[in-house]
Design a protein that fits this description.
By secondary structure, the chain is α/β, with parallel strands linked by helices. It is built from seven helices and 14 strands.
Length: about 260
């Protein structure tokens, strides 16, 4: 996995053929007015920052600061682009729903940086070895929530989905925040998932920071596989994703879990 310390950023430049010059001009003016920072992660093969660029620590610091101030940010993950805020901040969670136009009865997942963090916010029913086989990776595991998690986050359910994306920037971001991020796809609710930042440009003015990690490699737009592990010895696929086959293989063949065929 690439070192975040070697990642540099620069102000996002022209979007080229992806949008008109006028749209870019207006979008830039709106972002400037609302102090939106649009920053680009440089590829790991980069020779380092040059004129007008900053080192990886600055983009992390900028994003953490925005999150700690209660703002919503856009970030790359290992599957699609996401919107993130501090899960323990009730007002930030409400902002995230408003930005997406998301149905208030649809849950947000949480994102953490290390496997041990899951035990603080979830009542884990599987072995640590199983967690290690699936995470970090394109999988969201659903457990009973612990009492530590913000009661305003998904108050309509006792369950919560948790992710550790296989993405160095996202893991380090969670570690630096030292608390879970609420995470959802970076798009208007019911619209297609996004794999490049220009695809959700209409949301930029509502965000404090947009981190451009370039096109997401998979391009499948499927997002993570969501699997309910809240019942001991059972699993239930809530949403098939890009890692469905490998996830089921681990759960059934390596750990002997059986599929729960009851009602969703």
């Amino acid at each position: 996995m690439r070192s975040v310390c070697n990642i540099a950023v620069e102000l996002l430049k022209s979007r080229g053929a992806h949008s008109s010059a006028e749209a870019r001009r207006l979008g830039g003016e709106m972002c400037k007015e609302l102090k939106t920072k649009v920053l680009r992660l440089l590829p790991p093969t980069s020779n380092g920052p040059s004129e007008g660029q900053t080192d990886g620590a600055e983009i992390l610091s900028c994003t953490v600061k925005a999150l700690k101030e209660g703002h919503v940010v856009a970030v790359p993950t290992d599957t699609i682009y996401g919107l993130a805020c501090l899960a323990q901040n009730s007002e930030a969670v409400r902002k995230t729903y408003n930005i997406k136009g998301r149905n208030g009865q649809k849950p947000l997942a949480i994102c953490v940086g290390e496997t041990q963090d899951i035990y603080k916010y979830c009542k884990v029913t599987v072995t640590k070895a199983l967690l290690g086989d699936l995470l970090p990776g394109p999988v969201t595991l659903v457990f009973e929530r612990s009492e530590v998690l913000n009661t305003d986050l998904n108050p309509f359910t006792s369950l919560v989905g948790v992710r550790i994306p296989d993405h160095a920037f996202m893991r380090r971001l969670c570690q630096m925040c030292a608390e879970p991020l609420a995470l959802t796809s970076a798009n208007i609710s019911s619209h297609t998932s996004t794999v490049a930042v220009h695809e959700f440009e209409e949301l930029w003015p509502k965000l404090a920071v947009v981190v451009d990690g370039g096109p997401i490699g998979d391009q499948s737009r499927l997002g993570s596989t969501v699997v309910d592990l809240s019942v001991l010895g059972k699993y239930r696929i809530i949403r098939p994703g890009c890692a469905l086959s490998s996830t089921v293989d681990v759960l059934e063949h390596k750990y002997g879990l059986s599929e729960d065929l009851g009602e969703a």
